[in-house]
Amino acid sequence: MHASPPTPSFSEDIKLDDNAAKRANRLIIRVAVIATMGALAFGYDTGVISGALPFMTLPPDQGGLGLNPMTEGLVASSLIFGAALGSLFAGHLADRFGRLTALKGLAILFMIGALGSTLAPDVTVMVITRFILGMAVGGASATVPMFLAEMAGPKRRGRLVSQNELMIVLGQFLAYTSNALLAYFAHTPHVWRYMLAIAMLPAALLYVGMHFVPKSPRWLAAKGRYDEARDVLIEIRAEPKQAEQEMKEIIRQNEIDHEQSGWLAAFAEPWTRKLLYIGMGLGFVAQFTGVNAFMYFTPIILKSTGLGTNAALSATIGNGVVSVIATVLGIWLVGRIGRRTMLISGLACVILAQISLGLVLSLVPAGLTQSYMALGCILMFLLFMQMFIAPVYWLLMSELFPSHLRGGMTGMAVCFQWICNATVAFLFPLSLSLFGSMTFLVFAGINVLSLVFVCIWVPETKGKSLEQIERHLEKELTEDAQPA
User: Fold this and answer.
1) Are the C-beta atoms of 29 and 213 separated by less than 8 Å?
2) Which residues contact 321 (CB under 8 A, 6 or more apart)?
3) pLDDT per residue over 176-225, tens digit each?
4) How many degrees, rounded to 5, is the angle at CA 433 between CA 428 and CA 438?
5) Which of 147, 225, 275, 315 is the most exposed place for a label (fewest CB within 10 A)?
6) pTM to 2 decimals?
């Protein structure tokens, strides 16, 4: 007789469970690191231009492109307009072809844009390739948080998706730092080409890495591929029971959801329309804090106080350092307190920082004291903006929208956010020249309105699965639409 195999003891079961949990944890970390290469490229490409532009303004015979103020603005803004278009279409493509396919395509766009701008022989080619690069940046801004949210469980979603914002600000910090180092050590007017070329590295890592991560289980389920979706969930969840429960929720929600998809379907029902408007409103809130006015124009603000050019440029690195530290703190906080609480707290602090900056520039005599006080107000603004508001914005973009419309609605909402970004970037220098320090008091007034919007309209999503969020919002927003 053959002896029956020994029954695993209780301690062996625990060891097996521990090993499965460790494998699931390693896989989720791998997914987060690889996917956020898109966010790193996003941050680097938006930050690198500040260091490249001074060299690109040199005449062609001295290694530059001979940029004038108009073409300088075109080169800088072409990425933002490309990002608006890229975010709009990337969400739709991610719904149709899958998150992984969309991210691979975006990685190729990143490399084409980075290589083209590095080798650009004239302004026309530079503007075109920066626009292509912007499409990749915008596409990544819509797709990466959505993919991370669909891979993470409810308890880890906040921190995992918030790592996207960390990689964005880390990319900006790396851009500012590499710009300074290259400008110091590379004694050539062509140094701007080296600055732009570095952007190809995270793009290549994103493309290669996408071959080593699983597909989104929710996208697979939306396409009726339930067995594949279940296999992925079992692979990325620590407990089979958790994976099975989540799979049941996904199937149940798929049966409730309509078969419609794409942009027009988002307007088919009152509650999805209202949800889209909330998402677009959050884009307004995030950008009309004035964050990118500070990221793009801090040297100009500080030079107006009498600070020297080199000192003002060094302060831009300070922006990057504070943004990284603040985002790390935000990732820690987002797992502990609610999304609404973070937005409300952040807006309140941002309003105080902007009022303080306006008063410093208006009342304190120009000089070193005013320079330091203004810099302190700017860094205080960035601390609370990047800690409380920016991570929560991208997190909510990944959570709010129903699964069958998530790509298209995320794309439209993020596209509007990029339009707001371009509007602020365009109007800020004009406003600063016309109204001076009053500009920051205007921003404070706009943010008071944003605070009211958040208090009234933005829902709390902490601790719920994506399917629970969808059912809750459909119920709440449908009831709000009913006549009294």
Assistant:
1) no
2) 173
3) 888 878 887 888 888 899 999 999 999 999 999 999 999 999 899 988 89
4) 75
5) 225
6) 0.80
- Tokens (6 digits) for 289: 């804090």
Identity of the amino acid at 8: P
At residue 178, what are phi and psi to the nearest 5 degrees?
-65, -35
Residue whose token pair is 């307004």: 284
Encode pLDDT of 123-176 as tens digits: 999 999 999 999 999 999 999 999 998 898 777 888 888 888 899 989 988 988
